[in-house]
Amino acid sequence: MRLWVCIALLSVVLCASADRPRAVQAMIRAGHFVRDAAGGARDMFRAYQDMREANYKGADKYFHARGNYDAARRGPGGAWAAKVIRWPFLLPHSDARENWQSGVSGRGHEDTRADQEANAWGRSGGDPNRYRPAGLPRKY
User: Torsions phi, psi of 71, nearest 5?
Assistant: First the structure.
């Protein structure tokens, strides 16, 4: 008798889980988006850490493209994270970043434009190795 009750309950659970309501499906999609966004943020941060560790002149565009590429490959949430997160991470939007670069670092608007081009290239699925400088260790 217990076996039949267990089989009946199991079949009810399996049938009920096959037809999920739209609200449940939307929550699942939202959860996937959040998971992808968090993973994309991790990818961007890992590229930033690698850039700092490598400390290789002329490699920043490669790390910009690689971080955006890795994040965007995760799906819609990762692509969103790649679009929202700015370099460096402490400056939340591009105006502050441009002011910082032109005022403090001396690199100017040309470098900012090149960084944004590398970001867009990586986000669109372009190969980050396009920006890889010769001599950068294989570790990166």
Answer: -65, -45
